[in-house]
Amino acid sequence: MRVGSWFAAFTLTAVWQFAAAASTPDPSDGGVSAFYRWTAPLPAAGEMLREEPLDPSQSLSGAVANIRILYSSTDGVGGRERIAVSGALYFPKGQMPKRGWPMVAWAHGTTGIADVCAPSWRGRTDRDQAYLNAWLSQGFAVVATDYQGLGTPGVHPYLLWRPEGTSVLDAVRAALQRHSGQLQNRLIIVGQSQGSGAALGATYLAPLYAPELHLLGTVATGLVLTFRGAATLPGLPAKPAAYTDPAQMDPSFAMLRIAGTDRRLHPELATENFVTAQGRDLLHAARTSCLHDMFDLSRREGLTGAKIFVSDLKPIDSDMEDNFELPSAKLTVPIFAGTGLADSEAGTAGQYIAVIAMCRAGTDVQWHRYPGITHNGAVNWSLRDSLPFVRQLMSGIKPTSDCAEVSAPGPIQRPNSGVPYNN
Question: Other C-beta atoms within 10 Å of 24: how many?
Fold first, then answer.
């Protein structure tokens, strides 16, 4: 066969495979109500499409109004295409300020990639309810995105800062557009774990993507993100492979990465081809259930990252890091970072590297380290420091950076007992 004929045949085959993959129903889609599916033309990003009351099981006790929202956003993977994204909006109790309630934009931690894992549908954990109720009690309205493709159609691009960041910012824009008399344009972005990358991604994007938003600062706990070039900074440890290599990662998180992130980046490749026979049940669980169901299955079957994937993941996973890394660690607003020193889930070395990268880039950072506190425990435990940090921002005071005092966290500690949510 001549080269030209071979190339034409190869191209046609690739196009056919891509079209077949795109037309195949995604098993992670569905299981939610018709509210989440928008079929009309979409307006510009950041407009509210519709709202409805949340069920009591999906509501926060500290809110006077609990609202499910659907709004327009931008596909953070594909570029400029308009998409619909879901989330929730909570109004605090008490007397509304004259200019309306200031806002906290909440970026949640990992729940899964199936639509049924969207927090606005599934409801929130006791830990997150306590945390969001704390912000409501301080007089903030809370707008909480589900993220692109989580609840709404399409593959959720798990851990990618751009689609998650645009989802955060457009939720705020939509809430301000619909409730302009009740909300004021003064914003704090708050995120945990997966949401830390979403929060810092939104912070990075805000000056150009949503310059009209008055962002005062960002609170991030259990940091799960990497800044481009941070690995080459002198004097820093390498990020452990247990948090970067799917074969060495926790199998549930690794499967979410392959079945969510990588599938969204490579729709032309079949995820099944990169999963072993032992991993098929976990792949099915990733597409149809949520994180803790996957944890249970992994423990029950004794799964590891090495057991569930084929040896060569490069075709599907080679460009994940390029899309995961934030391009710059220079952020324009003060950053609060909170790390539990017993955080074995995200590790502490990567969090230290991220903080150092921000400090060396000139970002104003407060890094609070909590002995004996875990990944989960740090969320509410950090309120003792993050609330004063935010009160300073709301008063027009720039919080003091502690970049000059940052030091390596040392080995991961044992968790303290008797601390709420410190599992």
Answer: 10
Give yes or no for residue 12 having a pLDDT over 70: no
Confirm whether 147 is domain-assigned. yes
The domain in which residue 272 lies consists of: 241-322
Give burial (CB, 10 Å; 0-12/13-18/19+) of 344.
middle
pLDDT tens digits along 73-112 = 999 997 779 999 999 999 999 999 999 999 999 999 999 9
Q: What is the DSSP letter of 92?
A: E
Q: Do residue 138 and residue 284 come from a single domain?
A: no
Examine the domain organization and report whether 43 and 169 are in the same domain.
Answer: yes
Mean pLDDT of 178-206: 97
Predicted structure pTM score: 0.92
Task: Give the contacts of 310 (CB within 8 A, at least 6 positions apart).
Answer: 273, 274, 275, 276
DSSP state of 333: S
Specify the pairing of strand 365-370 against strand 335-340. Answer: parallel
Between strands 141-145 and 82-92, the pairing is antiparallel
Determine the Cα–Cα distance for residues 237 and 190; give it in Å rounded to an integer.
27
Q: Are strands 365-370 and 141-145 parallel, antiparallel or unpaired?
A: unpaired
